[in-house]
Flavohemoprotein (Caballeronia arationis), 408 residues
Amino acid sequence: MALTPRQTEIIKSSAPVLSEHGLTVVTRFYRRLFEHHPELRNLFNHTNQRSGGQQEALAHAVWAYASNIDNLGALGPAVKRISQKHASLGVQPEHYPIVGEHLLAAMGETLGDAFSDEMRDAWAAAYQQLADVMIDAEKGLYSQRAAQPGGWIGWRPFEVVRKVDESDEITSFYLVPTDGKLLPPFDPGQFVSVKRYVGDLGLEQPRQYSLSDAPHGKWLRISVKREGAGASDTPKPAGRVSNLLHDELHVGGHVEVSAPYGDFVLDRTKRTPVVLVSGGVGLTPMVSMLATIVMDSATRYVSFLHACRKRRVHAFREWLDDIVADHPNASKITFYEEIGPNDVLGRDYDFPGLLDLAKIREAVLFRDADYYLCGPMPFMRAQVDALKALGVDASRIHTEVFGVGDLR
């Protein structure tokens, strides 16, 4: 049911309040949710919970919804992306009333008397409106996956048939379904969720990893970076799941996996140039895209631009060299922040320092090219700004961000 004009006015007017108190609201929301429904803890990334990243992202999402309540079309891309994430985690319609109950209660706890009955009713209607949109979108995704050959809904057990160290930090896992049945097709750039039990949390924890190979039906490959504790001046929680995968998941081991989802995907219907721009482990979906482009076409031009800290953490380096040597339509440029004593310019890397698109504009600017970008948040913001400064239209810039956050 659509909101009344008065309800729309109330939601819109509450945006400044949520901008000021949103983080408190969502912190209380998560506390209430987990106290009353501890079974839902398995759906959430508790590393992001402890760092505060998930709370900050949800607070911004609630504020954005309130700010755009009279122009929901502006939220279309965000709704599409969130529904893809939800489908990979198995979010169900019955979860939405639970979330709504505790979100409204958290608003009341935070805002006190300012959260009047009229405001509560308006937010209840607004939340239901959004929930209906999300439920419908996720229902469509589930139906699509269930109808595909080899598709499934929820979790499916897979076996590791091969494990390969791609660098000092990144390891690839080749996964095949234990039931011996078909794998579904997927779009290059999509991800799967992987679920692993974390003993010190007493929880199963899901993590999402981009698929890092072409959709050939032989296996699903994920390439996982081992996340460390970080430097002492920039502490961060160690990557519990990534470390468990590196240390405990070996050939012959099993893991539960979702079907592929995600809207950051290569358009395979085009034959115009593609520029892939990645930072660190953000190269994994780009590897899938590049492998697919050379599999699909001998003529479609693709430029692979990558930035990493140093040679020892440069994953897929030899594979990329072979691709470029074997395919005249493919080129690459690599930036290293740290140059080692044995690193050779032109062999291991092309430029020192941070990736600078203005410096390599001849490898960036192509007529009708599409630009696919993935990496850490500061990297992403810098590259999007650089492409726009070079005159690239925003409609041709496609982004995926690892972790919580957005490119606002």
